[in-house]
Amino acid sequence: MNQHVGKQTLPSVCPLDCPDTCSLSAFVQDGKLVDVKGSHANPYTDGVICNKVARYYPEFVHGKNRLTHPLRRTGPRGSGTYTRITWEEALDLVSEGFSKAIKTHGPQSVMPFNYAGPHGELAGGSMDRRFFHKMGATLLNRGPLCGAVRGTAYTSLFGAAPGMPPEQAVHSDLIIVWGNNVTVSNLHLMRVLKDARAKGAKLVIVDPKRIKVAEQCDLFVQIHPGTDVILAMALAAELERRDALDMAFIENWTVGFEPFMAQARRYSVDDVVSECGIPEAQFLEIADLFESSNNIAASFGNGIERGRSGGSGLRAAMALQALTGNHGRLGAGVIAKSGLSAPKTQARLHSNDLIPNGTRTFNIVDVAEKLLDKTLDPPVMATMIYNHNPVATHPDQVNLIKALMRDDLFIVGSDIVMTDSMAFADVILPAASHFEYDDIYGAYGQNYVQRAAPVIPCVGESLPNTEIFRRLAARCGYDGAIFTASDEQLMDDAMDGADPRFNDVQPSQIAMDSSLEMNGPDGHELIMCKTVIPATKSGKIELFSDDLQTRFGYGVPRYEPVPQDQPLTLITPSSSKRTNATFGGCEASDCIEIVEMNPTDAEARGLVDADKVTVWNDRAEVTLRLVVTDATRKGVLYSPKGTWLNTSDTGLTANALIPSDIRTDIEDGACYNETFVDVRKSYKIGQP
Fold this sequence. Notes:
22 helices
């Protein structure tokens, strides 16, 4: 007779690509994850988690799409036809595939194809980096797909110094949330906003869509996508005209004021009205709020970076805080990068010293182009897709699929579930979910370090990333302690255990029922220009960036419009049902996705709410369900990102409409928001 184990509550941490990195309570019964709730181990997330994590993790871990055994492709590439094999057979096939490519074309003919699936330090990048570095495989610059533009915009001003933790905004009297849908992708900032407003703070939302938080704010600024730099630079010029800049702070804490302002003065109120689509009175109201407020906090999401002038928009908007002297005290600053306070030692964790001199690096946005380039020397003949679902997340989806269909390309896939990308692999290695392995977690949106251990056994024959790459390293003949290191050792390699904030406890041993706050020296709160000094070459906030001028020609921000060849702009922000493409295979996402349209645009096309529509441009056509709403501004469509191929009648998603040849001003990043389309009716939902 089977004995049932009572339900257990065990600590865990959310690893998804989100700034909050919540502490979790995992409810386990009979070795299965049955429920997930927030825990109080992390004071910032404090028992609250988003609906998608609460609702979809049990299905994700134990559902029909879960990969539980190694597989070998037996049908045509892309068909999803596989046969179960043993781990030994799978490792042999991977080793043979990589060895064949290396023997014929050299080690750089192998390319890892990964991004940011789990954000644990071990699962996100540890033994896998050691493996590919030892091999001498092509390197991948992953940031340009998402995050690098925002990150570089920040560090160009402040260096790698931690910014303002979000909790400090409770001390602000004005908070600006710019390009950040906090209720969907930065949930815990909402509590801070609520507390600050209860104390009298004003809240300004800048976004192309009237997002949920905009319904509760003091001023909603519905900006046209990609024009943020114009608004920010025009505000700088307007505040200068009003003599509202903090010249003492500028003198003491910044460099590059004159060239920055010379550029800012080129932008007028008329530009804001004509390009940003913001009424003059509203622009002047923003300037009034800047001028009258004592402590301003500003939060910037990744939305701004998704346009051609994204780097400039972020730099200009962040620079407003320095120009107005909003640093050096509680409640004043840029809410960003507080996670830089964690003493990560990634070079040691990744064993960067193994990288052969002269190894080439590809921009991840260029992968489809590189795979299709017949003149590339050496060509990419083998790749491994892991921690990533590129088919669901990359621009120019049609060309990426074409690249993955190459008959002569050996593809290894490793994931928790069967994704659109796994269907192109020759061999699939089942990966464990984060509920099934040890890891240590920093964060990019808050300043706590957390650790988690397995709460359930590995499902089926799945393995943690670290063990998968240990076995691959052994099969490829890579020996030495760095390739046999335990997960405990890897956690200690991931962080500087000598840092006094660890209190003489090794990273691998920190408690799991609490979290470590990474404050500044002597336990002081992180306050830029007080307890934290800008980590730039000058030691000051650099309004003019020599680095960006040298590398990209953007020492100061500027606007560069992209010619629009279709009447509507499509933006694809975060979904309330998915984190990027994670959970895209769950039942709630296994249906046609919506596209939101302004009533004026709908009426002009003879469209009504709930119509099934085809969104199209010269790249592709995608079917979506229409939602007519004035929350979206005229000329702009809104459709959540991360959908999977089966959600559209055309077998393609909105990513097929997104260009890959238009790039951001800095870091050569993907321009998801420079997607121009039109819409026509397909048929009413429910009709044949």
